[in-house]
């Protein structure tokens, strides 16, 4: 008998998984600090965690994974940190493009890509275009994303359609408004996970998470593992979702 048996995995009912999981990938900086490393080392470790978790979500059959990679407020950070994050994104996307064909993952980007470097922007657009034919698992990367920014853009676009006579204010429905968001066509998240210990939404999916279940954990994102995800899924499965009913 082995002296140290394999730690038992948290039990999850894989036949009843949430269709859409969203993650606020937080705690990279603190993870690095606690190891005496520069914050950028935390972002690099976080990018690896993203790869592990995205692959696992695809393997177990989660249809949509949305991750918060860079917010509209993250530009406030020192320029060196912002450029290190952008470099990592570029490196990851180049690798993702080569993996995509075999893994059949569809990528979408939520957020305004215009302030990115032309190179990174082209890479994002190209990744989105070339993966659009895949329908197995969809990964949405929120990049320069902010929930309020998204809602303002939607309101402006709808107002413009009304001014052009294509629509009328009184006819606007919930579903139609969703179609003006970056996430058009994607079902709302069922489960929103925030590692890193903060218990706040930080401008993430404000409209879409109206009835999402939330799971917060102190584990920093670079330490977030498949087992952590199974814990979140098990907690999700123990919840009773009533959507306002009884
Ligand atoms: C999340 O980790 C990554 C981004 C916001 C880009 P942080 O960099 O916010 O890490 P902490 O919260 O400072 O530990
Ligand atoms: C949210 O984390 C944004 C991302 C994870 C990309 P932040 O670290 O920016 O959020 P606050 O500042 O703690 O609210
Ligand atoms: Mg943070």
Account of the protein in words:
It is a single chain. The termini are far apart. The chain has helices at 28-33, 39-60, 79-103, 118-131, 147-163, 174-178, 226-238; strands at residues 20-24, 64-71, 105-110, 137-145, 191-194, 213-216. The longest helix has 25 residues, at 79-103. 33% of the residues are buried. Helices cover 41% and strands 15% of the residues. The chain has a six-stranded parallel β-sheet with strand order 3-4-2-1-5-6, sandwiched between helices. It contains seven helices and six strands, in the order βααβαβαβααββα. It has 246 residues and is of the alpha/beta class. Helix 2 (39-60) runs parallel beside helix 3 and helix 3 packs parallel to helix 4. Strand 3 (105-110), helix 4 and strand 4 (137-145) form a beta-alpha-beta unit. The site of one 3-methylbut-3-enyl trihydrogen diphosphate has 10 residues, from helix 1.
DSSP summary, beta strand count: 6
Sheet with the most strands: spatial strand order: 3-4-2-1-5-6
Secondary structure class reads: alpha/beta
Cα distance spanning the termini: 50 Å
General form: globular
Q: How much helix is in the residues?
A: 40-55%
Question: How much β-strand is present in the residues?
Answer: 5-15%
In angstroms, what is the radius of gyration? Answer: 19 Å
- Compute the average pLDDT: 95
Q: Low-confidence parts, pLDDT < 50 over ≥5 residues? A: none
* H and E order: EHHEHEHEHHEEH
Output the number of helix runs: 7
Quick rundown:
It contains seven helices and six strands, in the order βααβαβαβααββα.
């Amino acid at each position: 008998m082995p002296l140290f048996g394999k730690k038992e995995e948290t039990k999850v009912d894989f036949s009843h998984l949430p269709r859409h999981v969203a993650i606020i990938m937080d705690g990279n900086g603190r993870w690095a600090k606690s190891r005496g490393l520069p914050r950028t080392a935390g972002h690099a470790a976080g990018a690896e965690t993203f790869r592990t978790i995205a692959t696992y979500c695809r393997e177990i059959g989660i249809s949509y994974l949305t991750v918060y990679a860079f917010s509209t407020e993250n530009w406030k950070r020192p320029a060196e940190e912002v450029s290190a994050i952008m470099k990592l994104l570029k490196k990851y996307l180049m690798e993702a493009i080569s993996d995509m064909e075999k893994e059949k993952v569809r990528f979408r980007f939520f957020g305004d890509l215009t302030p990115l470097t032309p190179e990174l922007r082209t890479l994002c657009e190209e990744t989105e275009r070339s993966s659009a034919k895949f329908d197995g698992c969809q990964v949405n990367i929120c990049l320069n994303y902010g929930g309020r920014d998204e809602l303002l853009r939607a309101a402006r676009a709808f107002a413009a359609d009304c001014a052009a006579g294509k629509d009328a204010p009184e006819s606007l429905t919930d579903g139609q408004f969703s179609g003006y968001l970056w996430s058009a066509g994607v079902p709302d998240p069922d489960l929103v996970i925030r590692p890193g210990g903060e218990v706040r939404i930080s401008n993430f999916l404000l409209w879409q998470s109206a009835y999402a279940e939330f799971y917060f954990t102190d584990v920093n994102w670079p330490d977030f593992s498949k087992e952590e995800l199974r814990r979140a899924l098990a907690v999700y499965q123990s919840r009773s979702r009533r959507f306002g009913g009884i």
